[in-house]
Amino acid sequence: MTLSETIEFIESAAQAEADAAGDTLTHAESTFEADREIVRRLGGRVEDDIAIFGFWAPELLDARVPTSDIFLEVLRPVGPIDLTRSHQNVSFERAYLPVVRQEAYCFTAVKGLRAGSRDAVGDFYAITWRDSEDQWHRILDPLAASLPFGAMAPAELYDVSAMQAARADLDYFSAFEGTEPHKFGPPTNILQIHVPTATAGGTLASLTRHYQRLAERVERDLPLEPADRLFLGYDAVQLLPVEPTTVYETGPAFWQETTGDDDVLSVDLLRPDTTNWGYDVVISGMATVNPVLLETGRPDELVDLAATLHNFPSKPKQLIFDVVFGHSDNQGLQALNGHYFAGPNMYGQNLAYQNPTVRAILLEMQRRKVNFGADGVRVDGAQDFKWWDAASQQLRHDDDYLQSMADIVQEVGGTSYRPWFIFEDGRPWPEEDWELSSTYRSVIEMQRDDDVFQWGPLTFAHNTPFLYTFWLSKFWRIREMVDVGENWISGTSNHDTLRRGTQVSPKLNVNTRLGRTRMEILDKAYDNPAVHVLTYAAMPGVPMDFLNAMARASWGFIRNQDDRYGVKVVAEEAISLKWQVDEYSYSIPGSFTRLKELGFQTREELARFFEFLPALVEVTEYDLEEIARLLNASEPPIAGPEFSVATLKEIARAWMDDMHDYCNVSHSLSSLDADQAAFCLQLRNFRRARPWLRQNYGPKDRFDYLQPIDGRTVFTSLRHGPDGEQVFTVCHMEGKPTMEVDPLVLPVEGIKGTGWELALRTPSIGPDYGGGPITLKDSMALVYVRKSQG
């Protein structure tokens, strides 16, 4: 039997959906409230043996398309389809079913469709419409639950209810069940992870297996290797965005239709393989998972990771999602109708937050995504949520929308809850004086919840702890952290600060005491034991570490989809070669293979090309043909292929792909410093045992730097716990060694007396030191504790 003969349009169910939407539009208190209710019914869902679909398609009204020309297009693979295969040509049976309209909404219901699951691939679908010239146009589902071939391809009907019912952490969530939605609070600390570079496999399934192995080792009390310690001691894991991102600008497409008619369609399918740092989203598909991150092509992998973290022995680990709704890449224009957008910005497109349906759909995307099982949500670029106030002719921050994000109630396993929220908000960024004028507290002060967090001033971009005087110049910000930092994310290593660090000119006043080479200096700056002590033992807030920084692996702006501006992006990233790649690293046979194939056999040869490229991009105003001509005319000749527009783009792509491979944390595990890894785990556990350290400084607490400066910056901190325990820290942040000094006789009010015990020493201080006079050098720190004297 053909597909058309095995499926059936259920008109009564489709009409019921449309009638319900019409009734809501008529009786709701506002259009926005109506849309919030209606969008819960959009996308594709399975109810018993019927699949129900809803689309918001105002473009059909714009084009005055009659209902008789609008259909649900269903595509069913004729034979087996393997989502793990790199390339395959698959034939799909195709059928068209009618829809029922209600204003800009289209609904339909179908019996006999196959829903996808962990073990089976379901039917694919989209809305299609026919114009007056009999040309067909497709409208994709932005609220899809599964997108095996990315946001630019038809969606897969997926049985989300079955996926949720089978999750392995239902007991975790049922423990929070109550009469009111449970409110998750902040963890003690966070490990930030970029999934594609976190493990050799580069997928969610690979990361899950890694945590399952760690869980078993912890449960069995087996010896821990440095690579184990790297991931342990954290109460939460925050993933860089896992939403579908941009696709290759000029192809190939992951879903490429070759031949077809009304009944059968032939499609070339490519397994999605883009490399991206996660923030180049197209908004469409935000409710599901980027297929690049899925080893099996099944969104269940994200549920599996959540369950593994929630069931971690000794203490559950929270899962935090990083969501990007402050902008869309320009490719979003290909996936969504124009009503979603409010005009261009520096990232691509602003979103039309004041359109009530767009506003409702964005919030619904967030709700569905977090229902994969996240305990917390980090909102990227909250300062970019703006709307145009025509009356005052200015952009205003949409704080009401940010509040709506934090108010969403999630439901997993029958338990209703509200996640913990973090906002990255540096307003008035991007104004020139933002580093001086930003309070980093705009959202904290605006929202109703008292546990809303923001990224703090040392966690935001443009922090350079490898330059001399950084710590003293930032002392005014550190004083703010001491006074009001309990609702800030703290720490200096994250995806943004490490990337910015690699873009700094090495000609600046670099702190050469951190290492012998630029690579050592950069690595130690973002994995500095004294900075860790400052963050974990002295500062309020919730510390966050970036996995790549803690592993001393490389990191940068990774995106291989660009065609038009790819060469320019690489020219801006070229300076990172000086910071992150030395001759030995480049020479390893498995490293930078694509660039070597293009003729850059040594780092020196690539470095010479990278000296020319940024300058030529600037002086030619990014004229690729002229850049190629000037490169070919250079004497002596520059290594590499004969330069042309095409080969320049090929080099740019090779750089991005090679750097993506080079940044994988698995390459760094064998060279981890065992003492440093052990110390950092000790420090994290020290903080976890003292959750009160998250609070602002009290009246008896003290924080200052030793004076006179005398060529070095040494911070001292004294904290008092609710049980009377005192924690005293001394951190040498930069500069010359101190004279020999006994830390416990420093002029710090409140440390006099006996009873102090040395709790932690940074690795460069030998284990034979138990107290007394010491010469402190750059990156050394000590932590003392004293029990209540009462």
CATH superfamily of the largest domain: Glycosidases
**CATH architecture assignment name of the largest domain:** Alpha-Beta Barrel
* Mean pLDDT across residues: 96
Share of residues in strands = 15-25%
Measured between the Cα atoms of the first and last residue, the distance is 85 Å
Most strands sheet: 8 strands, parallel, barrel
* Backbone shape: globular
Number of domains: 4
Helix content: 25-40%
List the strand order in the largest sheet.
12-13-16-19-24-25-26-27
Summarize the structure.
The chain is of the alpha/beta class.
Task: Describe the 3D structure.
This protein has 790 residues and is α/β, with parallel strands linked by helices. It contains 29 helices and 32 strands. Helix content is 31%, strand content 20%. The strands form 7 sheets. It has an 8-stranded parallel beta barrel with strand order 12-13-16-19-24-25-26-27. Strands 4, 5, 8, 9, 10, 14 and 15 form a 7-stranded antiparallel beta sheet that branches. Strands 1, 2, 3, 6 and 7 form a 5-stranded antiparallel beta sheet that branches. A hairpin with a 4-residue loop joins β17 (341-344) and β18 (349-351). α26 crosses α27. The chain is globular.
